# Entry
Amino acid sequence: MTVTSGEPGHGPTASGRPPDETFAAFYERELGGQVRRAALLVGSAEAAHDVVHDAFVAVYRRWGTVREPGPYLGRAVLNGCRDHARRAATGRRKLPLLVERAEPGDEVLWDALSDLPFNHRAAVVLRFYLQMTDREIADILGCRPGTVGPWIHRGLRRLRKDLS
Amino acid sequence: MSPDTDQLTSLLTRSAAAVEVEPDLARVVDRAEVVALAPDPVGRPSRRRLVIAAAVATLAAAAAALVAVGLPPGGGGEGTVDVVNDPPAVDVPEVQLPQRYLLGPEWAVVDVTESTVDTGEMRFESATGSIELFWQPAERHQMYVDDRAHEADPWTMTIAGHEVAAFDERGEYGGIAALWLDGDHSFEIRTQSVDERMRSRRWRRP
# Structure
């Protein structure tokens, strides 16, 4: 199968498909943001690449029929991260800190973040890394907007408790 | 943002920036051509399904009792629930669709998430409100009870044979939380749907 190169897109966030956008252009536009976001949820750049590329495979196979591949990709990545977190949690492994030059408190905060239930952690990451609204977070996590606030609230409360 | 959320945003931003992104479009194309759809696994019901079934059985009785009796104004103290209406009979086979057993046919399961084999959450909704159920390993129970006690004074009651620590949390994301131990798991039900009518009606304390 041949994939033609396309023009780079604009913006790092998942979105609908512009008319005539090639898969290659979509891939180039979405890859960085998706990998970085996934890395925050799985704690590994390598695992994030695996999860995101699996999601791209799913989009690629449906490229002709998916009307809004951006949101489809975003949900596929989140589901992949959730599956990864489930496997990692079974082995009782914590997320490794991604930054090499940590600041005071980074490790405590990161450990607390990795201890959160997946949905709470994802909601916190999407809010405080990407500044997404409740509605945007709900759409990507597949829940109601009213659920997002309590998830973030409980996540922050747990983080504050661990930090104190 | 408060200092701790500033710290959180800083950490997330620095962590994301530290991730190197290496495009590999060929990997997508190659895998898309060779990956075959795997059949759905068959066989014994998973432990997850069994845990959910057990959780729903307890939740059904507990939630029914909460709805039936309402909750004490202001909370606090210790008491015993005077159940006005008996909870519905609950009979859950090992594997079954759980929404059949929750309060009545108007309640539906709208979300199920299992974080680990021992940790998960379910969300139930009806036209009148929603209830969330969380389950955790039993060893975390006291930690969660202590955490909820920061938000509200607890009171205890007995629901479906379990001693329940209940909290009436106020504030933007407040609601009713009730936690109890059952076997190897700590259960918590939370609802923001308990309005003032439920807080005030049909509650008698000894």
